[in-house]
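We emphasize that the prediction below concerns an isolated chain of 445 residues; any contacts that depend on oligomerization or on bound cofactors are therefore not represented. The input was used exactly as deposited, without trimming of termini.
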Amino acid sequence: MANGTNGINPGQSAPASKPAGGSSSQVSKNDEEHEQSDDDKDDEETADGIGNNTAAKKKKKKRKPKKKKAAADASGKQSSPPRVPVASLFPSGQYPTGEEVEYRNENAFRTTSEEKRHLDRMNDDFLIDYRHGAEVHRQVRQWAQKNIKPGQSLTEIAEGIEDGVRALTGHQGLEEGDNIKGGMGFPTGLSLNHCAAHFTPNAGNKTILQKEDVMKVDFGVHLNGRIVDSAFTMTFDPVYDNLLAAVKDATNAGVREAGIDVRMSDIGAAIQEAMESYEVEIGGQSLPVKCIRNLNGHDIIQYSIHGRKSVPIVKGGDQTKMEEGETFAIETFGSTGKGYVRDDMEISHYAKKADAPNVPLRVSSARTLLSSINKNFGTLPFCRRYLDRLGHEKYLLGLNNLVSSGIVEAYPPLCDVKGSYTAQFEHTILLRPTVKEVISRGDDY
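Result of the prediction step, given as a token string:
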């Protein structure tokens, strides 16, 4: 999930969780409830088999149709759509390890240090939660990449991903407090073309994915507040291949450069050098791929997607260092436009501030809504569809009041100039005492 820094100089760390204009933006008054129910009934038939003549006696019973079950087969494979809890595919509780990368130079000793190995073993629960969430992310996105096609609505795509995450984590999020135990780490971002981040459809949105679209798919999975934040870009026209290659290369450059004691400015410089070595030809015009300079990566802390540190994607003077035990989302954004985003379009993403002030709320619906947010999301980001799903109605006045009171942060979509195309790739890395683990790495990216 992007960390926007409008109005902040390139390379300068951004205040945590504060995309520009978020706290002052107001919610539009479109509140259409969207509910789905899915009841499947299987009819079973058997032959009567009753009769006095020979033909009737020989009459065979019809076979009962086998009911389809969302369950793993003998080889432990996931169903399609994904509905098998990942925990049942790994009954030992040991989930796949991410890509482990040894530290270099003055930190090379960490790989064999007994002291660091002891510290690593003490983080067992932390690693289990992160690896569990990462495997959920990989399995859901593998299904999404195979099944998302032009002609589908953005709502259908978002709900398909979210249904998969909830099923695979074993947390549907409908019972009070269940979503805080596990499930969606933040709403599924499906930002199209010039829109780079923070867009998910609100109820009633009719947008249909087109063949010529460039769609960023950014979603989070969490177990016990350990958020795996990873994103990729989907296109259906090879004309955009170089744009995607540039951003994927830049993200991998950032992942390679990142590590304990590494300065943020060095990471930003490596990312920018990789990204801006590419060009893309669209409509007969050769366009440079630019880093979106006011979008950053960020550290992740438990139950908070944006921590206290920002990871720039352009060179600058930020001397802040990464430290042992920290978790970071290394994400990069490339654009054929100006390489700078601004707030635009209808707001869908929100999150309660970790340092929310205790102020009196005169709007009764705001008090009711805040109680529900505390019980169901805490400081995890949510969107309006999630409130609809919990049965809230006519909540926009209360939501606006929470935003204007400084209790809830609003995250508007972040967009470059119209007519441009943007792409994103992102990984979550753990700076373990002994190695760097790219927890979200998969065969796809």
